[in-house]
Write a structure and sequence with these properties.
A two-stranded antiparallel sheet has the order 1-2. Helix 3 runs antiparallel to helix 4. The protein is elongated, with a radius of gyration of 26 Å. The C terminus is likely disordered. Among the domains are: about 35 residues; about 50 residues, no CATH class. It contains eight helices and two strands, in the order H-H-H-H-H-H-H-H-E-E. It is about 70% helix and about 5% strand. By secondary structure, the chain is mainly α.
């Protein structure tokens, strides 16, 4: 009986210690719960700039990197003879005209209950919930309708080439492709 009381007391004490430790750790987290934001705050402090300037610089760097990758990819498929330089220029101009709201559209759709695969229905939901304006929704539709006609065919063709090349397998720090056996 005495052993049982001691064991119960020790277990209760251990649980209490874990509860206190968990509370202390939870209080040390940043207010928004992410270490990423606290790191960005610290970077802004070190550089002597405000957080908005840092966020703007990061967004600009991401955009420039995406555009450089896009240009590199288009140059590669032009060189391969898949499309002409004029078509690449048309695709580039179309992508550059993309409305800014498009960068956040997937996240907003997930957050507010958009319908996957149905852009117009998703836009209607977002407008109805006053997440985006009707003007932004119209801008997205006009941009999407301005898509070069051959772009869908090009995507399918490139997707088919990707499937023929095989699956990607991770080895160490490099990706290597394995040819799928023919059936």
């Amino acid at each position: 009986m005495f052993k049982r009381k001691i064991t119960l007391g020790v277990i209760t004490g251990i649980l209490g210690v874990f509860a206190l430790a968990g509370t202390a750790l939870a209080q040390e987290r940043p207010a928004d719960g992410t270490a990423h934001n606290s790191i960005n705050d610290r970077i802004a402090d070190i550089l002597g700039i405000d957080r908005e300037s840092l966020d703007s610089a990061i967004q600009t760097a991401h955009k420039e990197h995406r555009e450089a990758k896009q240009d590199e990819h288009l140059a590669g498929i032009v060189k391969a003879g898949t499309i002409t330089q004029e078509q690449a220029d048309e695709i580039d101009a179309w992508k550059d005209a993309k409305p800014e709201i498009m960068d956040r559209l997937k996240k907003l759709a997930r957050q507010y209950g958009g319908i996957r695969g149905n852009l117009e229905a998703t836009l209607n939901i977002l407008v109805e919930k006053e997440v985006i304006t009707q003007a932004e929704a119209n801008e997205i539709i006009v941009w999407k309708d301005g898509q070069p006609t051959y772009l869908d065919e090009l995507r399918e063709e490139l997707r088919g080439e990707r499937d023929v090349r095989g699956t990607k397998v991770r080895r160490g720090q490099r990706w290597s492709r394995h040819i799928l056996p023919s059936r």
